[in-house]
Specification:
The chain is built from 4 helices and 15 strands. By secondary structure, it is an alpha+beta fold. Strands 1, 2, 4 and 5 form a 4-stranded antiparallel sheet that branches. The longest helix is centred in the N-terminal third of the chain and has 21 residues.
Length: about 260
């Protein structure tokens, strides 16, 4: 596997892109409410990325994806296509996934949002997924393995009686959107690629209320839970440092680590 190690200077450029992506998620938060369509959320994000930030939305046109952000609602695991027909309603949960390109470098992050007041189960799933992501992040350090990262996520999520999606994962990132490195959100301690300073990748666990089985809708993109139960996802972009991990997708209003 060809793993592209980044210099400190390159990581700082990635941090700029990551912060800009996170600021899109800050900006859109007040617009996530009942009655709004996911197409409108996409338009708001696109306008901010292009006209306010002066950056490039990486998703639009990527492998044929038609929109600037992904909006995954309730039982959608990932890659939900924003639509004028998808109207948010009270109690929904939605993931918005943003990737921007700044000076050639990608910044990739996603967050969960509540539409009004969530159910007890929805909130527990979203909170568990968030903590699972941070447990994975904290497992990152030189000499650790990708199996350590995946195990930290899987152990916590399954202890809460949820399941970890197997077929979609985090990825290496830099000037290329999806580098060769793959970050599974399950695994065994000590197995897999050994982490080295300069590696940059996303940690983005998808955790399901029910089983981890899924199917892809006829649009070729939208992945949903096979049992139609809820799914949640959070994502940060990180760099391996000399003594640990650096999260590159933080903004002034990012949710606090747990």
């Amino acid at each position: 596997m060809n793993v592209n190690l980044k210099t400190r200077e390159e990581i700082e450029l990635m941090r700029v892109a990551g912060r800009l992506a996170a600021e899109v998620l800050d900006m859109v938060a007040p617009h996530v409410k009942p009655g709004v369509t996911t197409a409108e959320l996409d338009r708001i994000c696109h306008d901010h990325i292009v006209n306010v930030q002066g950056t490039i939305p990486a998703n639009v046109g990527y492998r044929g994806f038609p929109k600037s952000v992904c909006t995954s609602v309730n039982n959608v695991i990932c890659h939900g296509i924003p639509s004028a027909a998808k109207v948010l309603k009270e109690g929904d949960i939605v993931n918005i996934d943003v990737t921007v390109i700044k000076d050639g470098w990608h910044g990739d992050t996603s967050r969960m949002y509540y539409v009004g007041t969530p159910s007890v189960m929805a909130k527990r799933l979203v909170d568990t997924t968030y903590e699972a992501m941070w447990r994975g992040i904290r497992a990152v350090k030189p000499g650790a393995t990708l199996g350590d990262v995946g195990h930290a996520i899987q152990k916590f999520a399954e202890a809460e009686r949820f399941s970890v999606v197997r077929d979609y994962c985090g990825h290496g990132i830099g000037k290329v959107y999806h580098e060769e490195l793959q970050v599974m959100h399950y695994g065994r301690p000590g197995e897999g690629l050994v982490l080295k300073p300069g590696m940059t990748f996303t940690i983005e666990p998808m955790i399901n209320e029910g089983t981890y089985h899924h199917k892809t809708l006829p649009d070729g993109w939208t992945v949903v839970t096979k049992d139609r139960k809820l799914s949640a996802q959070w994502e940060h972009m990180v760099a391996v440092t000399d003594d640990g991990v650096d999260v590159l997708t933080l903004s002034a209003n990012s949710p606090a680590p747990v």
